[in-house]
Amino acid sequence: MNKVAVVILNWNGKTHLKQFLPSVIQYSNNAEIIVIDNCSDDDSIAYLTTNFPTVKIISLDKNYGFAGGYNKGLQQVDAPYYVLLNSDVEVTEKWLDPMIQLLENDSKIAACQPKIKDYTNKNYFEYAGAAGGFIDKLGYPFCKGRVFEELEEDNGQYDQSDEIFWASGACLFIRSEIYRDIGGLDDFFFAHMEEIDLCWRIKNQGYKIMTCPSSIVYHLGGGTLHKINPKKTFLNYRNSLLTLHKNLPKEKIFYTIVTRLFLDALSGIKLLLEGKAKHTLAIIKAHFSFYAAIKQNKQKRKPPKNPNLTGKIGKIIIFNYFFKKEKTFSSILK
User: Fold this and answer.
1) How far apart are CA 206 and CA 44, in angstroms?
2) CATH code, domain carrying 193
3) The pTM is what?
4) What is the mean pLDDT of the chain?
5) Crossing angle of helices 14-26/44-51, nearest 10°?
6) Is residue 25 part of a domain?
7) For residue 227, is it within any domain?
């Protein structure tokens, strides 16, 4: 049994596999490389079988989404450490070593992520995780190196390995035992925000999540759902509310969610005025989908056990970003 399983979820992603899988194979010595195929209808599997015979393929009977696809596939993976890696990520030499060493040195660390930079503009951080994820008082996610749409240039300002609140699903290192014990990703999410929900559940049980900037990967991003797709808007808004409802302390749920619903409404109005009516409709649909799922979602709540809230700040970053014009992680936290 290999200590590390690098697991890539694929759905009609032959182009990405062709472009990015060679770097994973080249720089992942002593790790088992696995592709979980979410019932692709292109020739991804035939391409893998012909060109990368050492890669293990797990074929699923339908598209279960990001969350369900990983949950189904990982049931067939036996390794102490999982690396959930997007198919559009280029890895670098020795990218695995510092991450695994970090986990090996501290049993309280449940998960971690590398520094994630932009594949198309390699001096800059990439949206999906940058140098580690945080959340604010209202549950808005942001990162070292990325606040809303603002991406920072990497000048070494976030090169310290420290504790964060969530690690990116684009390249997530996690102990397999904890992944299973915590219940894995939430299938209902389908895609988007599922790693934040997972990490919050992990933090509620007292574990640590870390960033390891000595490991670097480059992420293309937007490979499955582009940000202009209303479905992505729907999933982000609905899943954000589900995450809050599932993980906040009981006494903070009502105030936080009511505030978020109001701010979502303002966001919807703004999108409508910008001529993006489909996205406004997606937000409305997200709210109704959230209301319909409240009872089911409530059953998924687990009592916190020595919750670790490092990486959750007491500010509301919408105010800092839009009114105080603080566009960087360091300016918001000063």
Assistant:
1) 40
2) 3.90.550.10
3) 0.95
4) 95
5) 30
6) yes
7) no
